Amino acid sequence: MIAKIISIALIIFLLFRLLFSLKNKWGLSVKIKRHLAYILPIAELFVWIGYLIWAVRLIYLSQNYFTLAAVGIVLLVLCIPLYLLLRDFIVGNVLKMQNKVNEGVFIEIEEIKGRIKRAGYFRLDIEDNRGNINSIPYNHIRSKIISQYGINQNLAKVVLRFTFPDTTKVNYIVPLLKRQILNTPWAAVSQDPIVEKTKTENGKLIIEVGTYTLDKSYGENIKNCVDKQFSLSYYQK
């Protein structure tokens, strides 16, 4: 019985880790990824609650009261930490559904200003322009004013130059290029990249894209990351 309970818990854990991993690897739009970012955690929470009820019922029906008492003691000891985690989890998902704490967005919460590096289950990681990470529990910011940066609020615009074979179709490559740029951790997803210029020169298609980021120094990181993704897709610069 114990082996069965542990095995099912392991399957549930690995299944959701796989789903979260596939969410980031699938070629999904930013909007769909945002929705999945709060739907999957809620689904996992309900699955674990159902699993806990099932496991306790199974132990009770087996009349293994010693194990049942041990589980009860563990839950009693963990009730306060679990309450705090559940509170941050619920507040975090409410903020995500309100589109206030999406990953990659540049925000300001009182004296903290920067890009949301990670919107986790219980905490929000904000990276400032010096690369420092501020990790804040969601419950601490639920009553704070959260300001999302607009196009003219501390976002730097960099023009990146990408080169492809001249046989590449512009209508095909531009949406793909924009998506790859937004998928990098340095680009501001709140502002769509803008194609500044396209031209053919020396047998190459050259596309210049205006991209918004927290600091112009991130431009090289964005370009290198996108170039690497296209090189893996058999594009030659």
TrEMBL record:
Q: Which residues cross the membrane?
A: 6-24, 36-59, 65-86
**What keywords are annotated for this sequence in UniProt?**
Membrane, Transmembrane, Transmembrane helix
Q: What is this protein called?
A: Small-conductance mechanosensitive channel
Q: Which organism is it from?
A: Saccharicrinis carchari
